[in-house]
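Example noted here:
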Amino acid sequence: MTQLDIKFVRAQFPAFSEPSLQGQAFFENAGGSYTCQQVIDRLTRFYHQRKVQPYSAYEASRLGGEEMDEARTRLALMLGVDTDEVSFGPSTTQNTYVLAQAFRQWLKPGDAIVVTNQDHEANSGPWRRLADEGIEVREWTIDPETGHLDPGDLVDLLDESVRLVCFPHCSNVVGEINDVVAVTAIAHAAGAFVCVDGVSYAPHGLPNVGKLGADIYLFSAYKTYGPHQGIMVMRRELGMMLPNQGHYFNEASLYKRFTPAGPDHAQVAASAGMADYADALYSHHFSEAADETKRAEAVHDLMRAHEVKHLQPVLDYLSQKNSVRLVGPTQADSRAPTVAVELSGQAEPVAAELAPHGIMAGGGDFYAVRALEAMGIDPAKGVLRLSFVHYTSENEVSKLISVLDEVL
């Protein structure tokens, strides 16, 4: 199997040659990744040459609009969906809030939705507030020991009243990768739509959403090496059924229906740099010709293989350490490299103690208060979170383990 060329990868990110960051290993990627050069170049070019109202006939405007369209088109191909099924917004939290308003109008009293307590609050709170409108909110709960979401438990919650099931592709503290295909099939069989929060999964390789089958898939570009935008896939059947949340005269345009305000033109355009980066990775590692969807799948697998290889030593070290509690699975192939650890005391001071040793990490609740409480972890105490992605090197992982051994 082709191995990720870590030297080539890191050469695509200016942060690794930035003098102020030398000697520091970045382990808070779940909060936001470094940005690749391709995105920075596009953002810079847009602000220098195309920072005008797009889609007019004059050159700067035409080029700006074309680049925005390019971002949507190429990301849609990578995600295995139609171009107009991809839309942008200021953040995934904001996108979810807008979606919840659409469902608020569409659902009827007596209808039910399912949410989990494994989610980041962004894919939980807005949906739970629908209870104010007479919508029944049913909670699919995690195992208090492992944080696992059992699909069998979901089956028990479903009936003809359930119209929507919301769950994460991967929790930002539990780390376990949920089987989206299987869960979606269960929900669809019961007549429910599915909304998947992919924020914590997408940094480890954009998934083929078309194959996953989800009706809504949300993730954040600033965690997938891009600018600060929320990206949403809304499948057409559902998107045209829900009430329009954009300007009334744009209601026929699927990608505008859930964007109430004008998008950030420069950041939308710069998102095409994410596709540039994926293409660069593919071209460097593979010689076979392939379409954009297949290239994205190959890059996804390349990223995951590298991460799984270097995650397992971290999990082995933490699971053998009696003074801490490793949250989530102990096997790397079933989880993302987002590792939460419960300590005997507060996590934030320990994260601060790692900093002088050149380890950039975080401590806190990470907006997953419900998940922590469900696992018996005091959110005020929080967890130490160590998260990395494909550009993390073997040396950095070794350094992390060495520093943890000294600090914990």
